[in-house]
Amino acid sequence: MFAVTILGNNSAIPTTERHPTAQVVTCNEQLLLIDCGEGTQVQMTRYKIRRSRVKHIFISHLHGDHYFGLIGLLNSLSLLGRTESLTIYATPELEAILQLQLECAATQLKFDLHFVPLRAENAGVIVDEKDLEVRFFPVRHRIPCFGFVIEQRRKKRKIIPEQAQAYEIPAAFYSQLQEGADYQRKDGVLVKNHWVTLPPAPSKKYVYCADTIYDEELIAQMEHADLVYHETTYLHGLAERAAERYHSTSVQAATLAARAGAKRLLIGHFSSKYTELQPFLDECRPVFENTELSVEGATFLI
Amino acid sequence: MFAVTILGNNSAIPTTERHPTAQVVTCNEQLLLIDCGEGTQVQMTRYKIRRSRVKHIFISHLHGDHYFGLIGLLNSLSLLGRTESLTIYATPELEAILQLQLECAATQLKFDLHFVPLRAENAGVIVDEKDLEVRFFPVRHRIPCFGFVIEQRRKKRKIIPEQAQAYEIPAAFYSQLQEGADYQRKDGVLVKNHWVTLPPAPSKKYVYCADTIYDEELIAQMEHADLVYHETTYLHGLAERAAERYHSTSVQAATLAARAGAKRLLIGHFSSKYTELQPFLDECRPVFENTELSVEGATFLI
């Protein structure tokens, strides 16, 4: 399972209908939280996201609509008895803010909180696990801001059962076959791994572009992604305002997705001025047909 | 109009049904916000509270369920174009937290933000306006914490129309009569104010006791209040746990209200462990009949 669930799709000012930015990526058994606007913890409850399974939290930047819900979530996790450690990836200032808030409340979290500071000059891999890799990259916004590439690694080779049986390889050796090992038979025959397996399925890739001005340098990050999330704060009629505020429009997001050869585009971070979201799709689809609205509570397979 | 509207009635962990502490006091044309847990700004929208009319915000203490929604509210007020100044009354550390958050976001609020630091040794009057007085007092909690006494002053004397007409006082002079002035007639007669007016109605008093352990010293603050808000985090069976955590129970709140001769008691800050609130009323009313549950969205006249 590799999917993303939308918890908030709105830009700065929350409404009763739309919440500020937050998404949960499910990668096999693990949950990753990307951004955490005010109200995220309640949205997690509403959409039955198991908070306890989140081990990594990525904060793109320190505008409030992307992180004001984080301290409340940490607080609640502690009150609910979490003991497993949690890692936060963000610009280093976030650590100072959280520490000050915990100190003023005389709160000692019941779990270890690790911080990985994000600085543009160190862009690259930040999570490197057996079936998961996360990289970050800088994007152009009013303050330091980062996007994330999340890859579900599929390293296991695929066994061809008829072949493995034909060579009389015992089932107990199958997991080693998946890792690429050759099999030495007792009669002296060395069964080469590629005789009995196929290469792993290609990794799947989700690219989260955070808040950004229209920037063609993003194309390199988005290339061949299975799913790209790109903000569309405004409809294209407000392209000038978007640029002034370091945000993007519908048509701009769709243009980048098309040029990058992405498979699918997810748009969000809609300005509160829009009550209807359909016009965003109507503007994107002629440019990049495979566009979806990040509707709160919806889950998109990657 | 002197009333309190409940925006949040829950203790630490918010749920989809109940929000952390926040209340709005309406005093004539003015709104006062008391505490501001996560999600308060959306609750204000939901219950049609005009955020622009809030000029004073009182934060009882720096546990997150009483202030995590403040930075988001300030941010939104600024984005919505507020220019009128706003005053926050809280322990001094709050100013450092908010300044750090604004700085990291490179946000310059569009309005002046004033801070009035609350320190136990200075307990007393913090707002002194024509028709409104607010005092603060320390309460006993795990960290520095304060309660507030909000008085709607009624300084205008009440004109007795028949008397004022009998003395031939022109209507244009009525507002001066309400302020207590005598009237000098052209024929030389000095009409004494008390011949034609009655004393002002007595002030009305709302006492907000914040988060507190059972503490009989609160009785002095609550005396003869028209409405007292006292937390009841737990039902009385958990009195021991309440004391350990510097919180109170249903029966304890009711006992204090009864002993103080308060007219009405409002209870809230219910632990998330309780899904039903009726048992809180059932425990309070035998001790102090005039008890009400702080139901979200409900308005109580003071």
TrEMBL record, chains A, B:
EC top class named in words: hydrolase
EC number in record: 3.1.26.11
Active site: D65 (proton acceptor)
CC cofactor: Zn(2+)
InterPro entries tied to this protein: RibonucZ/Hydroxyglut_hydro (IPR036866), RNase_Z/BN (IPR013471)
Record's keyword terms, sorted: Endonuclease, Hydrolase, Metal-binding, Nuclease, tRNA processing, Zinc
Entry binding sites for Zn(2+) 1: H61, H63, H141, D211
Catalytic activity of the protein: Endonucleolytic cleavage of RNA, removing extra 3' nucleotides from tRNA precursor, generating 3' termini of tRNAs. A 3'-hydroxy group is left at the tRNA terminus and a 5'-phosphoryl group is left at the trailer molecule
Molecular-function annotations in GO: 3'-tRNA processing endoribonuclease activity; zinc ion binding
CDD domains: RNaseZ_ZiPD-like_MBL-fold (cd07717)
Binding residue positions for Zn(2+) 2: D65, H66, D211, H269
CC cofactor note: Binds 2 Zn(2+) ions.
Entry keyword Magnesium: no
The UniProt record lists the keyword Hydrolase: yes
Function: Zinc phosphodiesterase, which displays some tRNA 3'-processing endonuclease activity. Probably involved in tRNA maturation, by removing a 3'-trailer from precursor tRNA.
Assembly and binders: Homodimer.
Family classification: Belongs to the RNase Z family.
Record-given protein name: Ribonuclease Z
Gene symbol of the encoding locus: rnz
